[in-house]
Every structure is written in C-alpha cells, then in structure tokens.
UniProtKB/TrEMBL annotation:
Additional record remark: The reaction proceeds by a bi uni uni bi ping pong mechanism.
EC number(s) recorded for this UniProt protein: 6.3.2.1
Protein known as: Pantothenate synthetase
Catalysed reactions listed for this entry: (R)-pantoate + beta-alanine + ATP = (R)-pantothenate + AMP + diphosphate + H(+)
Compartment(s): Cytoplasm
Enzyme class, UniProt record, top EC level: ligase
Residues holding (R)-pantoate: Q61, Q153
Biological process, per Gene Ontology: pantothenate biosynthetic process
GO annotation, cellular component aspect: cytosol
Primary gene name: panC
Molecular function terms from GO: ATP binding; pantoate-beta-alanine ligase activity
Subunit: Homodimer.
Function description: Catalyzes the condensation of pantoate with beta-alanine in an ATP-dependent reaction via a pantoyl-adenylate intermediate.
Residues given in the record as beta-alanine binding sites: Q61
Amino acid sequence: MRVISTIAELKAVIKAEKSQQKTIGFVPTMGYLHEGHRALLKKARQENQFVVLSVFVNPLQFGPNEDLETYPRDFEQDQKTAEEENVDIMFHPSVAEMYPNELSVSMKVRKRTDVLCGESRPGHFDGVAAVVTKLFHLVQPDRAYFGKKDAQQLAVIQGLVDDFNFPLEIVPVETVRESDGLAKSSRNVYLTEKERAEAPVLYSSLRMAADRIKAGEVNPERIVHSIMDRIQTETSGQIDYISILTYPGLEKMEVIKGNYIIALAVKFSKARLIDNIILIEE
C-alpha cells in the first residue's frame, strides 16, 4: 500500500491505473476508521481491481459550534487498518493541499438537508458536497462506497451524482452491527454500562416499526409514537428526532408508501446515537 499526500502524485497514479483499464473503487472517510469503514473497504476490494481510501478531516463541513481541532484522529491505526484491508492507495492530504486558496465557487445543497441531522447543522452538507466533488474528480472511481448508517449523507451524495451526471456508481453498504443489534460507532465507547445495555432498544424499536408497517399500518404519526413510547420507557436517552420520510428524497409522508426511511437520533449522557432502517420496494 502506498500513502500519498499530494494531489499531483495521486493524479499520476490514477492516470497509470486507468491506462491499464483497471476498475477503481473509492472509500472517502475522515479517518479514525472502525468496523463500519472496514465493511466499505471489503466491499470495494471485492468489486474492484484497485482500491483508494481517502483520510481527510474536511473543515468545510464543520459549523462554527463544532470543534474541528478535537475531531478524533489516529493516522497510524488508520494506516494499519488500510493495510489489513488490502487498500492500494491511502490518500492523506493536508488542508493546505486540498484547499490552497479560498474557493472561488461554493456549493449549496438545496434538498434533503433540512431534516434529520441536517436540520441542526446548516451548511454541513454543502461542505460534504464540495469535498466529495473534489475527491471524485481526483480519484475518478468507477464505484464509491458509503454506509447506510449515514443515510442522509448517502442520499445527498446520490443526489449530487445524479444531478451532475458523475460517471460513477454509488454503492450503499449495510450498517455493521453488534450481536445485539446496536449499530457500530466510535461513539459507543462513551456509553455508560447502563446506557450500553439500553442502546440496542433503538434498533429493535426500528425493527418493530418496520414490522407494523409491513402488517398494514400506514399512518406515520402512529408509528413514530410507538417508537417514542418504547425508547422513553426502556432507555434513559433523550430523543432528538424520530422521522419517517421518503427515500432518498427525504420528504415528509402523509401516508407510508413506496420507498422510505425510518430514522432516529437519541442523546445519552456523553454520546448521541443515530440509526435507521431503509425500506426499498423490489
């Protein structure tokens, strides 16, 4: 595996691989890799002849009240993980390398951002769209891999690719879970022992809701209230949101039908956990 920190070197490597007609799989991350990232890398390795991982903490997607400097970083562990997953290139640029000058063009994501986590993070997905656009141009992947756990980000990026006809496929990857159903996350270590025992209720409440919908319930308010009641009864967490929306459009539904997502966020004492179930009609 090669670690590359400059755009010029990355472009040279990509050009050489493209000249050999190799398919390129790309996993963009902000580092501090965990098992969810490993699942993306494994999928990319299975489906492509050349795999690129980017590790870049993107300042454009941090708001004024979000501390960019305290975002967790562990380059040595990330490098070890990448090597274990047989990554070919780990692109690890500095902020100065990615943004040598103030951007002369800004991006504004107009849809899919004013709900779920995006509602409390104005401008966040503008920064995501900007960096992903830049990375897609640099890596020129055939396929790019994103986890379903960050379903809103996945929806925004799918919209970006569709709107601007990027010549690549977005590949959603299933959420990696613990044996009790809790979605794996670096935030889980901040749960107390009691909270960790309660946390699987989040996913089981989503599963319960999905079963009720499959059984014929089409009223989103009744489903939301059933999830709310269970979380409030069985956990000490504070509900941030519970939403049922179209997917990937992320629009409100009067009646549950078609493709949809059931998503939630719950705050515990030192960790805010998100989870979702996406249901797509075959």
